[in-house]
UniProtKB/TrEMBL annotation:
SMART domains: FU. Gene3D superfamilies: Hormone Receptor, Insulin-like Growth Factor Receptor 1, Chain A, domain 2. CDD domains: FU. This is Growth factor receptor domain-containing protein. It comes from Poecilia latipinna. Residues 164-255 form the Growth factor receptor domain. Keywords: Glycoprotein. It holds the Pfam family GF_recep_IV. Transmembrane segments: none annotated.
Amino acid sequence: MLDLAKQNVFYVVQINVSSLVRTDGECVDHCQEGFFVHKESQECEPCHKDCRSCGGPRSDDCDSCEDDFTLKDGQCLDRKQLTTCPERQFKTSCVDECPKGYFNNEQEQECMQCHADCASCDGPDDKDCNVCRNPKAVRYDGECLARCPSNTYHDENNNECTACDKSCLTCSGHEPTDCLSCDANRRVDESGGCVWSSQCTMDSYVDLNGDCQRCHTQCRRCDGPGKDHCLSCNESHLLLNGTCVKKCPVGYYVEDKVDPACERCHPSCESCFGHHSQHCKTCKPGFFKQASSCVETCSERFENIKKKNFPDRFLCLLCCSLCCCSKDV
């Protein structure tokens, strides 16, 4: 009988070398958590920072996620990214229209709350109201006021204070023939326009001697001799603070009305296409351009970006899906 105790017994273990991978110079049978096997080098490479485990290096190669992230289509998304809507978002829900008291921020695709004075609005400031919260208030340049300022009239159709013609002291409409009262030395004539008391024509004014004198050649109507005494301008010119110019300067836009004039932009805008805070084309130094607004601080999910060749000009750009892109533009 064979005595096994006296025999040298050897066991052969087969190892599949092709299944081993390398990590830090050592061969192991699998990568540790947070790493994946690179197909060509057969080395353990790190996953994207948001992945707990993965099949590749990209942000959409995740198999499982770190805490506070949810796996969706290979990506690890936080709560805000999970509620990103095709149209717009209100709080944590996707909606077709923003509710009353909120406006649609198109850049962020989110409903944001109006100013406390506004029942509805098209921006966050107190001058962005479309309808006033107080039913007794009136609107002037988007702001809700207790009464219309002087040199304006109350347009009951839209509950808005609209500027009188420059020739009127008070008025019932925006036309030069809608004057209710006039300044010194002028009176309301039969047509409703303000004319000089000495019957001067519309393109003239009364001098200190009570005589009618022609307006400056740039003025269509005026209240004095200089080129800065214009009330309206000849064709192809625009009224700017009593003067007639061919083009509005930076910080102003063309208000298209009976007598076109240059009106001042919102204080945050360097150039603009309207007077609201969301009508900016470019921003003043120290402000960030976010969509058509100029803001002091970029909203959440946006990154401050410095604009090349303009060290004092900044933009707010929407971050990447999982990380912000930190680079100049």
